[in-house]
Design goal:
Elements (H helix, E strand, L loop, with lengths): L1 E5 L5 H12 L2 E7 L5 H15 L3 E5 L5 H15 L5 E4 L14 H29 L2 E6 L12 H21 L4 E6 L7 H4 L3 H9 L9 H13 L7 E2 L9
Parallel strand pairs: 1-2, 1-4, 2-3, 4-5, 5-6, 6-7
The structure holds NADP nicotinamide-adenine-dinucleotide phosphate (NAP).
């Protein structure tokens, strides 16, 4: 049996990815942060067991914190008997705040949750993959990591940083059988987007060549592709309705 661990798997894109991993036959450790997401995550685990016959475990941890990531990975190592096949760095937050109103505390929270968490998770998980001689790491970046977005300097920097980390680790571990890739979603319907001003959403929708906001399942499909295609490393795939074309 293969094993996967996903951060921020309680809701939104992470939930769809966790279900995709289950469909692909992976046992999944699902991380979440808020007390309010405990019941959601437990229900998701039941669904994984009933629908796909795989095992799931919910682990609460704030992945912006090094010690929490250590505890999360240690718990997963016990469940998995030390065999990590897939790591998905998905947890993320955004401020969507004008630069001059952005406090140090707020931009540090975005950088630590979106970028430094992936450093922590890779720091603890990659040694297991090195030992096994294989592994696949997928990080949820964003089109914000590829292009500028007003009021999102912290978010864009964190997501561009994930792409940089991914490329460097792909170079370093390619010959050891460990692949690193990113997904750069465009605008996707989740709680994260529901927090954005509706006028802004309407305006952004106008700017999407396909004219529509994407679904979480569109991103889960990209995850499946990056796991299955054994020649993909150091890359990003960007399901984005055409809003960004390199
Ligand atoms: N939605 C979009 O349009 C879009 C576009 C591009 C990229 N993305 C990226 O996709 C990823 C998922 O976003 P989403 O839209 O699905 O967001 P969401 O619905 O707000 O879900 C965020 C997830 O991250 C978790 N999380 C947040 N901070 C955490 C922390 N410190 N430690 C552990 N877990 C934490 C949340 O856990 P709790 O439930 O416990 O709070 C939740 O599971 C993010 O990295 C985001 O930047 C989203």
């Amino acid at each position: 049996m293969s094993n996967a661990i996903i951060t921020g798997g309680s809701r939104g894109i992470g939930e769809a990815m966790a279900l995709k991993l289950g469909e692909m036959g992976y046992n999944v450790v699902i991380n979440y942060r808020s007390d309010s997401s405990k019941a959601l995550t437990e229900a998701l685990i039941q669904k994984l067991q009933q629908q796909y016959g795989v095992k799931g475990w919910a682990v609460q941890a704030d992945v912006s914190k090094y010690e929490d990531c250590e505890k999360l990975v240690n718990a997963a190592a016990e469940y998995f008997d030390g065999k990590f096949d897939v790591l998905v760095n998905n947890a993320g937050i955004t401020n969507n705040s004008p630069w001059c109103e952005l406090s140090r505390e707020k931009y540090m929270a975005v950088l630590e949750t979106n970028l430094i968490s992936a450093f922590h998770m890779c720091h603890f998980v990659v040694p297991y993959m090195v030992k096994a001689g294989s592994g696949c790491v997928v990080s949820t970046s964003s089109i914000g990591g590829l292009m500028g977005v007003a009021n999102q300097a912290d978010y864009c920097a964190s997501k561009a940083g994930l792409i940089g980390m991914t490329r460097a680790l792909a170079m370093e571990f390619g010959k050891q059988g460990i692949r690193f890739n990113c997904i750069c979603p465009g605008m996707i319907w989740t709680d994260m987007l529901r927090g954005v001003n509706q006028d802004e959403v309407a305006a952004l929708k106008m700017g999407i060549p396909m004219g529509e906001i994407g679904d979480v399942e569109d991103i889960a499909l990209a995850l499946e592709f990056l796991i299955r295609d054994k020649y993909m490393t150091g890359q990003y795939v960007s399901p984005n309705g055409g809003i960004y074309m390199p």
